């Protein structure tokens, strides 16, 4: 298997599991993962948030770890990467406002490179206009935004995944096993027991 070069877009208060788990899993498999945040440089950190499903009507939020960025946002170009990962949390609320982020996402999608997005990460895809006419899932509170952006929102269990062409989406971190497995298929990565 040839290692792939993957870009991950994050911001402050990215969901802790949704950045840590795919980052570590993709590295373990042998891929290179560059994690960037608009207006931050390599070796700077972003704060993470832990979203949990307890007894309330929606998720709870607690301060998570600091995550060290591995590359500088201003130096990345879609042409240099094989795929894109957009985790959730609160970061997508504000990074989607950055035209450079939207343009970068459109470049990945225009080249039909694999894009894996989870939970609120789909707010970035919707803002970039890449979900129109596509079947996607995400955290259920993002469903109306995705529908308004022209997507067909598929409500599935948090452990499930929806794949439409180059897009792999899941509602939340409980979907990591299937979400990552489908993303790896799109990357052409096989794991033999």
From TrEMBL:
InterPro entries: C56_PfpI-like, Class_I_gatase-like, DJ-1/PfpI. Signal peptide: none annotated. Residues 4-185 form the DJ-1/PfpI domain. CDD domains: GATase1_PfpI_1. Gene3D superfamilies: 3.40.50.880. Belongs to the peptidase C56 family. NCBIfam families: PfpI. This is DJ-1/PfpI domain-containing protein. The lineage of its organism: Eukaryota, Metazoa, Spiralia, Gnathifera, Rotifera.
